[in-house]
């Protein structure tokens, strides 16, 4: 997988010049180039349309047989099979076309929680929370930051693979949208788009996915970056994508700080999305229960994805984004 | 259960206050902190189980409040010092207090308590005994004691109290500088005891004393329920019972000292009476130096008796005398009470008399006038006579001079004048009457006068006739003629000295001295000594008269018409006496002051300060053998503290421990989030 004869734009300091929040700084861009190189080892095609879609059509690669139906082109009838079995079967071929990769970024209010928090246990242990990782990349502060970085990285890899990448934000409805584009040069638009993501509202997967499906004609891979904190659940939304021939890839973002809240005693919990309140008296025992409930919540999502043949990745805000991307690449199912 | 601390009402108020504060704080604590979370349904899953036990949670929260209120209740109840009848098998016995008692604990601090026995003074022994009595008395609140110091007056040193610490402190405050130099005011004690014990239950007077005084009648002692605690035993003592010094009547330069020395020992005691003089001395230390010794009188004091005597021809400078009685060093007797071995005396200051003799020459008269050592004689002729001004006495020997000017005159056969009218001449007068009590005739005999003739002066009503002849003709008389310009005082001898044998007699010089002395203010020459601690009323010239008569300075007038006068004591400056509360106060023509120490005090300031000798001079105090009255024996209150458990007696300790335990448990469970 190469960029062919096209000019190879380097996401360099020019991109970082407009970076005011440190989200896409020079270190981040260097890691993107590294991911670009690594991702080329994972896929070995250098031509356009190098990714095979599941769409069956006029390609050269045999895909399957199906029963003949009146109206089918006779030249696709497999006469050898007919001679052996006496049944009319039509050969089907995989149709090679450009792959559309849609990155759906959850921009609900829950994604921005914990902007200034520091893990309690890390602080209790006296550890100094690093400002930057070993590569000089600033750590993400919120799930939204991590989502935007992952979205940018995945989009960059897709663009580098001459696929079309599109970004969409959502909460209770579909939000901003960056139309599908191809070529590495588009990465700067993607950066700008991600920087300007508006956060707010509650999460409603079904409504958002339904709107996305209706507004998107070309099917493709749909990477969903979210914490999946949806009041009405996430099953219906993911199933809607599947049922409409999209290939959902689920990346669940978890903020470890949410699992270790620095809270004790009598408090009033306020849901940032619904503003619902709940009086509670926090005890260590209750926090253990909360962590167990969160693990159960993640397990349910993973179980659902595996049962539905949906690629599922779980990562944390505190994990370096490039390692997350590499684990996704190594796991396959996204670019392979 | 009974309360011995705060009452139920007070405890209820305290609990209401602190409980109210606790409830208010608890309500404030229920205001919860708002915390934003990304996904509340997850928390809802967590609290599903808790919802089921919400009632228990509510109860636990209320329980936390109840625990706090219980802690407050325990602490408040502890303030009430509750007494429980029985608890956990331990039996608390109600105490059986002794009958109420009001004991007036009197400690004698008079002079005799300075007697040293066994290396300690009687006062120290008395205070030790008083401490023991306090320990026996202050065993229960029903046993109330008042500590009183007794010397020349009575001074309560505490209120009625059963607090042992207060009473011990009061006992320590009894004469902290040692016994006073004063006698024992027994009647003061009787009066105080009657007043303090009137209508009090269990009244009694505990007198800790050496009883070196004559006790009042038994009936009076029974009235105050006296119990005696004698201090001290038999001890030998000699002392000065009385002492004074006065000048000779006819010789103002010589003095005679009178003394009375007491011996309490059962055998004669040889001793020496040392007499010292110091013009500026005030304390024993000022006098007792070899260079100030003026006389030593060796005496043998009879057993259990008083030796009285006098010392003649004492001559010294100044006016202050000090006497000390000392047992001969060879005698084995030890004087247990040295305080009465000293005495002070003040004699009048000698004054030189300025005498003018108006005569053409009379050797008899000249010789007689020179007999008196403190006479400054000036002799003038009648021609040079300028009047009596500037002289204390003018002696006129038959000369015709002006006798109408104010002054003092001694006249021998004066010629007729306005004040002395002569009616005739009496030949060969025979003395028929002599007033032997008159100062002019003291030590003088007139039997051998043998005058040839005498002038007969017209008598006046106020004439004091000392010697008269036949027909009542006055031969020697004294006349005072009042005059607005100044009185004229005459001593008149009606015959000429040259025409009689009077100058030849031994009485003539004495008569001259008597005549001069009759004009002197120091005729008596005896200043009475004073006793320590006794209120004195001194006749002291007022400040207004100070300039003329030498009254004391340092007098400060007060708005009420009285005035205060500075007092300086032996080894004490005026400021120190003020700090000790010693001050002289003038009311009218008397100065009232109480001087507590032996020595010579000075009333007033400056060179005109008046010296006052203060002595013990108390035969009762010198009789140091205790003479306790026969009074009922004293019994200490019987009070056995009930045998009881310490924790039950002070149950508040249990309450506080329980409260502390509850707080600790609450603290621990709160930190482990068990009770939240």
Can you walk through the features of this model?
- The complex is a heterodimer of chains A (336) and B (676).
- By secondary structure, chain A is an alpha/beta fold.
- Chain A has 2 domains: 13-48 and 98-331, Rossmann fold, CATH 3.40.50; 53-96, no CATH class.
- Chain A contains 11 helices and 11 strands.
- A 6-stranded mixed β-sheet of chain A has the order 6-5-4-7-8-11, with helices on both faces. A 3-stranded antiparallel β-sheet of chain A has the order 1-3-2. A two-stranded antiparallel ribbon of chain A has the order 9-10.
- In chain A, strand 5 (164-170) and strand 6 form a beta hairpin.
- In chain A, helix 2 (26-42) packs parallel to helix 11.
- Chain A starts with 12 loop residues before the first helix and ends in a 5-residue tail after the last helix.
- Residues 1-18 and 42-50 of chain A have low confidence and may be disordered.
- Chain B has 676 residues and is of the alpha+beta class.
- Chain B folds into 5 domains: 2-90 and 654-671, no CATH class; 101-230, Rossmann fold (3-Layer(aba) Sandwich), CATH 3.40.50.410; 238-350, Immunoglobulins (Immunoglobulin-like, Sandwich), CATH 2.60.40; 354-517, 3-Layer(aba) Sandwich (Rossmann fold); 530-614, no CATH class.
- Chain B has an 8-stranded mixed β-sheet with strand order 21-20-22-23-29-28-27-25, covered by helices on one side.
- In chain B, strand 11, helix 8 (218-223) and strand 12 form a beta-alpha-beta unit.
- In chain B, helix 1 (8-29) runs antiparallel to helix 4 (54-79) and helix 10 (363-371) packs across helix 11 (507-517).
- Residues 545-551 of chain B have low confidence and may be disordered.
- The A-B interface holds A 109-111, 113-114, 227, 229, 231, 255, 258, 261, 263-274, 276, 278-286, 289-290, 293-294, 296-297 and B 29-30, 32-47, 49-50, 57, 673-674, 676.
